[in-house]
Backbone:
């Protein structure tokens, strides 16, 4: 069963070892090259932290479980810092084809909550398969030109 980026927002992130709430999901950082979730971003800006997907032990309807309190970490590179600042958030991002045609904005992203594999993007009333995803940055999401049917 698929999970939704949009429905994940605000979900508590809890340490399995101590049952402490470590934060809430601000957004999910995708790894475009492997079309999966790379990390969960907790908070925004200078206080934001990331939890790498490989530290997620469960992604439920009520909470995201991580192994222990040490799972969240500060951004370690420019990409993670951009994610912490919300610049790499996919929801609401402009979507362009490789030809430069506007396709709409990303309404939601569907993913497998067990593996973190991104399955599809909901853009302007249609679902675009994740394998059409070419790139994503601070300006736009780029989709394979064959998905540009308008």
Residues:
């Amino acid at each position: 069963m698929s999970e939704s980026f949009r429905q994940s927002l605000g979900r508590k992130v809890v340490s399995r070892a101590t049952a402490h709430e470590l934060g809430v999901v601000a957004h999910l950082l995708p790894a475009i090259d492997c079309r999966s979730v790379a990390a969960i971003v907790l908070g925004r800006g200078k206080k934001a932290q990331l939890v790498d997907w490989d530290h997620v032990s469960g992604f439920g309807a009520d909470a995201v479980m991580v192994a222990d309190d040490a799972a969240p970490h500060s951004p370690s590179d420019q990409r993670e810092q951009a994610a912490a600042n919300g610049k790499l958030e996919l929801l609401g991002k402009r979507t362009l084809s490789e030809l430069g045609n506007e396709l709409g904005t990303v309404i939601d992203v569907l993913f497998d909550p067990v593996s973190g594999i991104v399955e599809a993007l909901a853009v302007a009333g249609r679902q675009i398969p994740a394998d059409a995803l070419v790139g994503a940055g601070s300006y736009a999401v780029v989709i394979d030109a064959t998905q540009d049917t308008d």
Observations:
- Residues 95 and 103 are 5 Å apart (CA to CA).
- Helices lie at 5-8, 78-84.
- Residues 3-84 form a domain with the SH3 type barrels. fold (CATH 2.30.30.240).
- Residues 78-84 form the longest helix (7 residues).
